[in-house]
Fold:
Amino acid sequence: MTAPTNDRFLRALRRQPVDVTPVWMMRQAGRYLPEYRASRTKAGSFMDLCMNPDLACEVTLQPLERYPLDAAILFSDILTIPDAMGLGLHFETGEGPRFRKVVREASDVAALPVPKVESDLSYVMQAVKTIRRELNGRVPLIGFSGSPYTLATYMVEGGSSKDFRQIKRMLYSTPDVLHALLEKLALSVADYLNAQIQAGAQAVQIFDTWGGSLTPSGYQEFSLSYMKKVIAGLQPDLEGQKVPLIVFTKNGGQWLESMANTGADALGLDWTTDIGQARKRVGDRVALQGNMDPSVLYASPEAIRKEVGRILESYGPGNGHIFNLGHGITPQVDPKNAGVFIEAVHELSEKYHQ
Ligand code: CP3
Structure:
């Protein structure tokens, strides 16, 4: 493979030396950018934006035009899989995702197809190819999927939820139904990530946004074990290189040791875990990605630089750190502050890589 001109991100994932700590932001293409809002208006809706490869490419590249980011992330959504399973995804303005059909009974699960990703989700693979062509080797492109458990929460609840009443009821009263659903999702997620890799994704991330809402044993049984199935089903080779995998369980800080044993190359951390302590716990098994509280971006440039400096110092010298926020950047952030953040990472990290 012709290595990207800027390959810091891939080098850090492989725990190889870098000149400065690479940085990207979850949700870096999003509503905090006025140019994103303009593209979404042009597309008509959020899903129209996802389904149009040229517009998806346009918004993927927008944050890279503004900031010296070290990676691009495919513009899409984790809910494309349940949509391809026929649940009818739509977004009400200001309300988040909604499904026309929900999954509650054994018969609902039995009726769900495993999507044929190459045809049912061809718009995603087309976006990956278009973005790779337009990036032209500038920085690596990250593909992604939701974890089986996280996807299941949306499918069973019918949308976002605060208390996960429906899926927890299913988990405790009819666990076999949930296992059958997770089994289908694990197959779908593995197919989906493999197709993104074949289309050109140079790293992939599994977003386990809601695994951290489970009990410790529930996490092992309903989230981690299905991420392991996904990982076992991956064929992570592209252009002669192994495609690194990042696993991000939000609120998963107490389970890092078991996450590090899944075969992931890197773990994503939210801000509730100290990254220096996390590094001691996982040793040299995995790289770490994270983990500034996204709310720091509401503060002053001085406060942002201070917090970046504190996290870099906590991680300490050496390889294997990819800087990121502990969760997605929020729509209310001033784009100038994102710039302050990214520049601070590059500038303040140099001394840790000598
Ligand atoms: O990071 C990026 O720039 C790539 C694009 C990306 C989006 N969603 C675009 C998006 C990625 C990686 C996701 C992942 C995603 N989607 C997750 C996992 C990460 C996380 O945030 O925990 C989840 C849980 C979803 C599901 C989802 N999509 C929700 C709950 C919402 C509504 C809430 C919100 O933030 O508005 C979305 C919509 C969504 N996905 C938007 C974007 C830019 C906003 C939609 C809009 O433009 O109106």
